[in-house]
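Title: Comparing notes on inverse folding

I've been comparing how different people in this forum approach sequence design from structure. To keep things fair, I'm posting one structure and asking everyone to reply with a full sequence. Here's the target:
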């Protein structure tokens, strides 16, 4: 008699059945990949990113003065150390899980390893990434921003602690509300919960997908314009050692003055806190005449705040000068000249990509029913190769996927140009630079996780049935279709290109010196020496 089980498990020979223990054991290669990447990133990459601002600058410029004495300072130091450890673990885990998910996607495309193993591994990896990207990393970023404003979650007054926790709750609630509201932008978003298999995890993944697509579009547009500006239009003068020494001298003078001001500020705080209680008449007279110590305290707080901003600007300019000096020295070598040639070719490709996307948007708007979006030569060649490997693949759909993947390549290839442009904008918004510096590792891990999840969601709808079944089971059916994602990506990409171009042009006009260059003038240097 034939078995009535729909899966026909009884028809499978015992030797071919995969037991749960065997499937779990076969996930060992992916677990080893996770451990290897996590350890390398934790020991090598995170210290490099977190120490991008030198220690002296961190101690003098970016640590807010403690208004509650030595015990509060020790508590703040301990709190900051714990926060840094948690951030390093979250950063390492996110990067490692992104690497494992990439490995699993490649195994899915090549149909390697046991399907049960791939399913278990993809489900565990995606769930872990979901928790990190939606819960852990946003909480750490909110904590970092609130701490950067001077609020303390422990070790302060009751009012200060309550205010910090209130800001944290409001910030995280706002993030969750905004994150869930993103689902309104999805096509047929109202029906996502009514579909078979639709659940909270699927809804969160779709929202991560659209967020990752938007973020990669913005960053790749910013990177493309930055590469064009730095390699094709920017005119820089030769940086000498004297320029660097003058900028370093200004920074050192500013930091020394900042340390002296903060020491005096701490003395006044202790003096005011240890002052004996005054009577009613003394308080009334003090409110009329003003307390000299309190007035000096407020003046010092303003001076310290200004010196922090100035030290951040000076450190920013010094970093740019050193990077430019190293680039100019490298350009005199054969390797440097070859690298410059590649940079010029890459910048020309960025120009072509921007132009092709603008043409795509125009044609799609005018001929929406008759037009099929073309791809650039690089995307087309890769799509043809993918189709050669799997003839059943949809070349047009894979071209869209490869176009999205190339956005990550553009961002990585123009990383130095992106930093230069970001520093240019940060000169006008030093607070943005300070907040970004404190969250650089978390931001990078967040971008990596969103990029990999968005790629997986797009792959889910493009893989042949005989290859992509595990991805569909692990990620759900979803509503992110390649054609809609392409339109969404192109719109955000062009918007980022326009905003970045206008921002660079405005910064050039504000400087008014006719040179597309970071200021190497002596205004801020001399100011730092005189303070």
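Reply #1:
Here's my take.
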């Amino acid at each position: 008699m034939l078995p009535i089980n729909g899966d026909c498990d009884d028809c499978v020979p015992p030797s071919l059945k995969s037991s749960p223990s065997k499937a779990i054991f076969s996930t060992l290669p992916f677990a080893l990949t996770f451990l290897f990447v996590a350890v390398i990133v934790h020991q090598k990459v995170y210290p490099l990113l977190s120490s991008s601002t030198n220690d002296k600058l961190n101690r003098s410029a970016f640590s807010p003065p403690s208004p509650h004495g030595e015990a509060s300072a020790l508590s703040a130091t301990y709190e900051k150390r714990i926060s840094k450890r948690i951030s390093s673990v979250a950063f390492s885990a996110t990067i490692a899980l992104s690497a494992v998910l990439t490995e699993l996607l490649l195994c899915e495309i090549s149909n390697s390893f046991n399907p049960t193993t791939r399913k278990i591994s993809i489900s565990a990896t995606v769930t872990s990434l979901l928790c990190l990207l939606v819960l852990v990393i946003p909480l750490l970023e909110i904590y970092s921003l609130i701490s950067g404003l001077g609020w303390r979650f422990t070790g302060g007054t009751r009012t200060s602690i309550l205010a910090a926790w209130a800001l944290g709750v409001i910030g995280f609630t706002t993030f969750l509300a905004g994150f869930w509201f993103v689902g309104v932008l999805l096509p047929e978003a109202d029906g996502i919960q009514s579909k078979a298999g639709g659940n909270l995890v699927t809804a969160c993944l779709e929202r991560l997908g659209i967020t990752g697509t938007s973020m990669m579009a913005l960053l790749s547009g910013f990177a493309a314009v930055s590469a064009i500006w730095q390699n094709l239009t920017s005119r820089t003068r030769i940086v000498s050692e004297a320029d660097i020494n003058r900028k370093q001298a200004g920074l050192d003078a500013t930091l020394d003055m900042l340390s002296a001001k903060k020491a005096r500020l701490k003395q006044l705080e202790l003096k005011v806190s240890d002052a004996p209680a005054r009577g009613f008449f003394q308080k009334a007279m003090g409110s009329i005449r003003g307390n000299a110590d309190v007035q000096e305290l407020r003046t010092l707080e303003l001076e310290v705040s200004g010196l922090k901003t100035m030290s951040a600007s000076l450190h920013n300019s010094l970093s740019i000068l050193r990077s430019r000096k190293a680039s100019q020295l490298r350009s005199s070598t054969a390797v440097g000249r070859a690298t410059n040639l590649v940079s010029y070719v890459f910048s020309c490709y960025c120009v072509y990509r921007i132009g092709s996307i603008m043409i795509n948007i125009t044609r799609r708007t005018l001929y929406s029913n008759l037009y099929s979006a073309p791809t650039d030569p690089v995307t087309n060649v890769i799509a043809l190769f993918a189709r050669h490997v799997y003839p059943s693949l949809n070349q047009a759909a894979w071209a869209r996927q490869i176009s999205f993947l190339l956005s990550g390549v553009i961002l990585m290839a123009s990383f130095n140009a992106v930093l230069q442009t970001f520093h240019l904008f940060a000169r006008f918004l030093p607070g943005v630079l300070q907040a970004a510096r404190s969250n650089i590792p978390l931001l990078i891990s967040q971008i990596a996780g969103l990029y990999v999840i968005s790629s997986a969601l797009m792959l889910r709808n493009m893989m042949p049935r005989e290859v992509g079944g595990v991805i569909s089971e692990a990620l759900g059916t979803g509503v992110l279709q390649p054609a809609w994602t392409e339109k969404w990506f192109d719109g955000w990409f062009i918007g980022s290109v326009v905003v970045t171009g206008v921002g660079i042009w405005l910064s050039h006009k504000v400087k008014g010196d006719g040179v597309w260059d970071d200021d190497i003038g002596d205004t801020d240097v001399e100011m730092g020496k005189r303070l």
